[in-house]
């Protein structure tokens, strides 16, 4: 795989954390309870063109969330794992080696987001040079930073009681640092309550985002993304059932190994599906 394709795949993973996945409701609350297990399936299709060559990347990730009692009233603790996939072996990673944790309020506020473990399949040993071990640790940290926003995609819910046709917007600032790569993302999303039927709240979503990435190896990139989506919230269960998003992105890259300025168009289709096990 060429260096440019690797960079585009990294940008795509970063964008997973900013794909619009939010919505409002009549009066929405997350109703997560201790001892529950939720399973989230994320299916994605990433289509991009680079230097006249069209590439399509399909992927599926499964996140498993274990819910336990929180330290304060209205809060729960979430431990998340990612099931291994066939593509993990191809990329030399095993995401099941990582664990993600966070505290979440019924409003969706997240605190104390942490991750541990290293997905790199190369086994560390006492004989491994310190420089190699440090590099692997840095790579594991970078991957954790990249995935934490995709794993904990749950939005804060609005305080207001919304009626059909009401809108609210959400703005987020995301960022990662270290490991030779820094990213900054600004996201603005507008959510509209379209319908309420049989205990389900249906939403349409519009969003725009700007992501800037700086890497010692791959230079700089700027990604502008916009898209539309749909989301369904189960009022009784207090959880999103489905979130589907279609986005277009324009990526500009510079300083990549003396290759000059380059650009790429990207289309992203993603679908999150939640199930209580």
Write a concise synopsis of the structure shown.
With 277 residues, the chain is α+β, with helices and mostly antiparallel strands.
SS content category = alpha+beta
pLDDT averaged over residues: 83
Helix content: 10-25%
Can you tell me the number of structural domains?
Answer: 1
Give the biggest beta sheet.
11 strands, antiparallel
Percent of residues in beta strands? over 45%
What is the β-strand count?
Answer: 11
N-to-C series of helices and strands: HEEEHEEHEEEEEE
Q: Please tell me how large the radius of gyration is.
A: 19 Å
Shape: globular
The order of strands across the largest sheet is 5-4-3-2-1-11-10-9-8-7-6
- N→C terminal distance: 38 Å
- Unreliable spans are 10-25
Number of helices: 3
Helix-strand layout with pairing:
Blueprint: H1 3-16, E1 37-50, E2 53-69, E3 75-82, H2 86-91, E4 99-105, E5 110-116, H3 130-151, E6 167-176, E7 181-197, E8 200-215, E9 219-234, E10 239-254, E11 262-276
Antiparallel strand pairs: 1-2, 1-11, 2-3, 3-4, 4-5, 6-7, 7-8, 8-9, 9-10, 10-11
Helix pairs in contact: 1-3
Task: List key phrases describing it.
277 residues; alpha+beta; 3 helices; 52% strand; globular
Characterize the structure shown.
There is one protein chain. The chain is of the alpha+beta class and 277 residues long. The protein has one domain (3-276). Helices cover 15% and strands 52% of the residues. The protein has an eleven-stranded antiparallel β-sheet with strand order 5-4-3-2-1-11-10-9-8-7-6, covered by helices on one side. A hairpin with a 7-residue loop joins strand 10 and strand 11. Helix 1 packs across helix 3 (130-151). The longest helix has 22 residues, at 130-151. It is globular.
């Amino acid at each position: 795989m060429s260096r440019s394709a690797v960079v585009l795949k990294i940008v795509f993973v970063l964008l997973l954390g900013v794909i619009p996945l939010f919505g409002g409701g009549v009066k929405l609350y997350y109703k997560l309870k201790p001892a529950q297990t939720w399973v989230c399936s994320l299916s994605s299709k990433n289509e991009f063109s680079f230097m006249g060559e069209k590439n399509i990347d399909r992927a599926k990730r499964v996140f498993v969330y274990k819910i336990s009692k929180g330290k304060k009233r209205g809060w729960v603790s979430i431990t998340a794992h990612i099931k291994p996939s066939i593509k993990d072996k191809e990329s030399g990673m095993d995401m099941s080696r990582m664990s993600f944790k966070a505290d979440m309020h019924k409003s969706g506020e997240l605190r104390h987001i942490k991750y541990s473990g290293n997905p790199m399949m190369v086994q560390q040993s006492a004989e491994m040079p310190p420089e190699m071990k440090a590099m692997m640790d840095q790579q594991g940290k970078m991957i954790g930073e990249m995935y934490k926003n995709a794993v904990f995609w749950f939005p804060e819910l609005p305080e207001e009681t919304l009626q059909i046709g009401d809108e609210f917007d959400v703005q987020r600032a995301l960022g990662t640092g270290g490991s030779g790569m820094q990213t900054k993302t600004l996201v603005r999303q507008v959510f509209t309550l379209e319908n309420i039927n049989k205990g389900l709240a249906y939403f349409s979503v519009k969003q725009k985002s700007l992501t800037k990435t700086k890497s010692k190896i791959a230079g700089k990139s700027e990604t502008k993304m916009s898209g539309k989506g749909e989301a369904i919230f189960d009022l009784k269960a207090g959880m999103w059932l489905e979130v589907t998003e279609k986005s277009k992105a324009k990526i500009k890259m510079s300083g990549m190994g003396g290759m000059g300025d380059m650009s790429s168009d990207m289309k992203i289709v993603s679908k999150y599906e939640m199930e209580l096990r």
